[in-house]
Structure formats: C-alpha cells, structure tokens
Amino acid sequence: MLYLEHVNIVVKDIPASLIFYQAAFPHWRVRCEGSGEWYGKPRNWLHFGDDYQYLALSDHGEGTLRDNKQHQVGLAHFGYVVQNLNAVIERLTKAGFPVDTYGTPNPHRQNAYFVDPTGYEVEFIEYFSDVPSERNNNQT
C-alpha cells in the first residue's frame, strides 16, 4: 500500500499554525515535539497528526513563500479529503480563518481553499462519488 505519511513544512509560528490545523483536524494530536539545530540554526519542531499521518512543523525558516496568485515555482497547495467539508469550513471560520476561495462547482465533489498562518494554501475536498472518473472529472 502506498500513502502519504507526512508533510514537513517550515512555518513562521508553530502555536499559530497549530490553531489552524487543530481546527481543521480536531481528532489529531501533538505526537511529539522538541528542539534542535538544522544546519547550524536552532529550531523548534512538532509533529501533529494521528497514528498514520501527520504534519511536521518547524519554525526555523527565513524569507517568504511563493505568491499563490502568481506563477513562481514552488508548492501551490496541499489537499486533504474530508468527510464533511461544511464542518471543516465552520471550524476554521470560527477559529478566524475564512475561506480563501471555493473550487469550481462539480456534482461529484466540493472543495474550499484556506490559507494557514504562514501562507500555505490548504485545500479541503469532499467527494460525493466513489467512481474515480467522476471524482476526477473537471467538468461541471
């Protein structure tokens, strides 16, 4: 079996990022955390997830992320399949994170994009079909 175990992202502020991701994934927990050095620079790190998947957050970054509305090379977004998109939207909105944009209407799915405190775009998608050709259809 092949699956994505974790995404390792460098964030501006771990506690602020944790507020966002705890609202998105209330069933996840802090698995472990610590501090150390990464190529000569001190950093704090934290793993937030469940027993099978997690986000690795580190706070040692410098500079800015690519502008998602432009065309620079880099991470555009990462996406999570959820069972109830409206519940995710409600939790994130209540935590102070409005929907950045909605996906194109499609009878087989709905999706919404949010921007976390560091500026990463995160997509949440709910599918209404188990048929791959319908789920992956970009036609409305």
TrEMBL record:
Pfam families: Glyoxalase
TM stretches of this protein: none
UniProt-listed InterPro entries: Glyas_Bleomycin-R_OHBP_Dase (IPR029068), Glyas_Fos-R_dOase_dom (IPR004360), VOC_core (IPR037523)
Residues in coiled coil: none
Gene3D superfamilies: 2,3-Dihydroxybiphenyl 1,2-Dioxygenase, domain 1 (3.10.180.10)
UniProt domain VOC: residue ranges: 3-127
Protein name (record): VOC family protein
